[in-house]
Predict the 3D structure of the following.
Amino acid sequence: MKHLKRVFTACVCVCVLAAALTGCSSTGTTPSAKEDSYPSKDIQGSIMWSAGGVCDITARSIGAAAQELLGTDIVFTNRAGSGGAVSTTYVNAQSADGYELLFGAENPQIAKVMGTAEIDYDDFTPIILYCTTYAAVSVSKDSPYQTLEELMDAILAKPQEVVMATTGAGGLPEVCASMFADVVGIDPIIVPFDGENECMTAIMGGNADYTITSLGSASSFYASGDIRILGMLAQDPVAGYEDVPSVQDAYPGFSKYLPWGPFYGVFVKNGTDQAVVDKLTEVFAQAAEDPDFLELIASKGCFPLGLSGEEAAAYLQKYRSVTSWLLFDSGAAQVSPEEFGIAKP
């Protein structure tokens, strides 16, 4: 009987020790069960802007590289509208499980002051900000305006007749229009379209006289000769576009706003498991170095950014501060950034 008790005691000790070792391994350096099992199904990707634009094209390109590394498909859906609010609202309403990715541009960072949405990128975790570009003032190849000064003079002389194509409240065209309103003094007449690609189509079809979009959206039409770029919101000549002047060449007042430009990135809803965030960050960092992706963004007038974690968060906050106050000071935004705790730069 004593022998049996000793055997029983020894078995209990072995079981307790095994349980303790198992518990230690789960909190040590080995991957969590969440990280090991993710992804176990297709991932959904919501693209903030319509098909054919830079946000759409670059999202699908980096997504293609990422899904190869993840071992599962990313199923894309374009959810355009309200300056990005349609897509941010949709993704924010889904589970924070890493299976709903937001592929977006800079627009949500001014949603609060523009009144287009109650959420912005503070409600999301940036996986990567993968590229940036410049803004370009474009007209059709048949436009009577040969220079930026000619276009601005025409708007000042007949403000009700020269029409600007925009992507709606909070979109890049209207942000840039606020800069021109402040520096040049124009009060543009605007007509909203679903996306930047549609803005380019509008000026080529005679439905608008000019637009201000990302260089990425203008680049292919510029290369084909269907449009002319009259000015670039850049401090220095842009490689491949050396014949396009900076807006500050004609209007030095722009120097206080430059450098400034749109960006594109991948986000998940706040509350997503950190192991999933880490895995997505690692995968998209590799995808952002894919040669096909780099060739694609270069062809679209975009430049690698590659920011994640705290660097991405700081970049987002700076953009929101500068742009929100620009819009408010110019009168384009009726709500003060102070109401949302947005510090003035």
Notes: The mean pLDDT is 89. Residues 2-26 form the longest helix (25 residues).
